[in-house]
Amino acid sequence: MRSLLLLLSVSVASSGLLAPAARAWRNDFGMGAASVACAMLDSGYSRRQVEQVLNRLERDIIRSGISSREQRQMANGFNDQARRNDCSLRYRD
To answer: Which residues lie below 8 Å from residue 68, measured CB to CB, with a gap of 6+?
Structure first.
């Protein structure tokens, strides 16, 4: 499970989405997380494994202290990208 979380974190970080910007919208982070999660499903990881990684990432994000508005932006970006990729992931709210 740690390797899955590491894979997701490294993939999102390497795409530059973790760099904080003062006025940046947060939906790009959610879109990146959904893209990586969909790629993990396509690579053979089970939906259960991917959802566990996403749930842990979600908990870590909430604990980080970002605002409710930024959390909604991330969730919107995630949901939009998952829908675009026709990915069978649980929508975030």
So the answer is: none
CA distance 51 to 8: 12
- Encoded amino acid at 69, one letter: R
Q: Which two tokens stand for residue 65?
A: 């202290």
Distances (CA, A) of 15 to 67, 68, 90: 23, 24, 23
Q: Which of 9, 6, 5, 29 is nearest to 17 (CA)?
A: 29
pLDDT at position 55 over 50: yes
pTM as predicted: 0.72
Q: For residue 71, give every residue at least 6 positions away whose Cβ sits within 8 Å of its Cβ, in sequence order, or none.
A: 26, 61, 62
Query: Do 3 and 36 meet the contact criterion of CB atoms below 8 Å apart?
Result: no
DSSP code string of 8-19: HHHHHHHTTTTS
